[in-house]
UniProtKB/TrEMBL annotation:
HAMAP family tied to this protein: ATP_synth_delta_bact
Organism superkingdom: Bacteria
Function: This protein is part of the stalk that links CF(0) to CF(1). It either transmits conformational changes from CF(0) to CF(1) or is implicated in proton conduction.
Gene3D superfamilies linked: N-terminal domain of the delta subunit of the F1F0-ATP synthase
UniProt xrefs under InterPro entries: ATP_synth_OSCP/delta_N_sf, ATPase_OSCP/dsu
Annotated localization: Cell membrane; Membrane
GO cellular component labels: plasma membrane; proton-transporting ATP synthase complex
Protein keywords: ATP synthesis, Cell membrane, CF(1), Hydrogen ion transport, Ion transport, Membrane, Transport
Organism: Alicyclobacillus ferrooxydans
Membrane topology field: Peripheral membrane protein
Origin organism lineage: Bacteria, Bacillati, Bacillota, Bacilli, Bacillales
Name of the protein described by the UniProt record: ATP synthase subunit delta
Major localization listed first in the record, in broad terms: membrane
Record NCBIfam families: ATP_synt_delta
Family: Belongs to the ATPase delta chain family.
Length: 187
């Protein structure tokens, strides 16, 4: 199980080292590539996370796969994760590092769920409203989720703003249940 506290500790350590070396952008790009490689190659992930495979073999493979392509600090960081039997944290650290780097750049990542596909004009209007509300430049990731019925759901970090019909119906149902309303036909 991935722990947020462990992820944050490794992320902050790596971010501090990258900032001190002036390579935050390069580390961010390399970490995103590592995460893509792990997500697209389940066998590679299993190999790195397997408790019986020796750390030396894992580090050799990481060197072969990422040695020339990735920022050297990222390769050293992966070696540390392997030595400490924390390779399972690589993707979580990549995501947290990216959020941290975007935050330092004055950007914020906003996941937008919509019941219907959005036009470019609608997406731009949402982006402008978010920018004025957050006082930061939002990087929006838009997903279509027909189960929402209508409206939007925004996720910024661990905060969620639900302005959907489905969310309103769920809140209404919870209020009815909490106030003692009995479902019809059930006693």
């Amino acid at each position: 199980m991935i722990s947020g506290a462990v992820t944050n500790r490794y992320t902050e350590g790596l971010y501090g080292a990258a900032k001190d070396s002036g390579v935050v952008d390069a580390v961010d790009i390399s970490l995103q590539e590592v995460a893509k490689a792990l997500d697209s190659n389940p066998d590679f992930r299993v190999f790195l996370e397997h408790p019986v495979i020796p750390a030396k073999a894992k580090k050799e493979l990481v060197g072969q796969v990422f040695g020339q392509a990735a920022q050297p600090l990222v390769v050293r960081f992966l070696d540390v994760l392997i030595d400490r039997k924390r390779a399972a944290y690589a993707s979580a650290v990549a995501e947290a590092f990216h959020r941290r780097a975007e935050q330092e750049r004055g950007h914020v990542i906003v996941h937008v769920e919509s019941a219907q596909p959005l036009s470019e004009a609608e997406t731009q209007a949402i982006r402008q409203k978010l920018a004025s509300a957050l006082n930061k430049e939002p990087q929006t990731i838009v997903e279509v989720n027909p189960a929402l019925i209508a409206g939007y759901r925004f996720r910024i970090g661990n905060r969620i703003l639900d302005a959907t019909v489905r969310g309103a119906l769920q809140q209404f149902s919870q209020k009815l249940t909490a106030s003692g309303a009995v479902e019809e036909g059930i006693r």
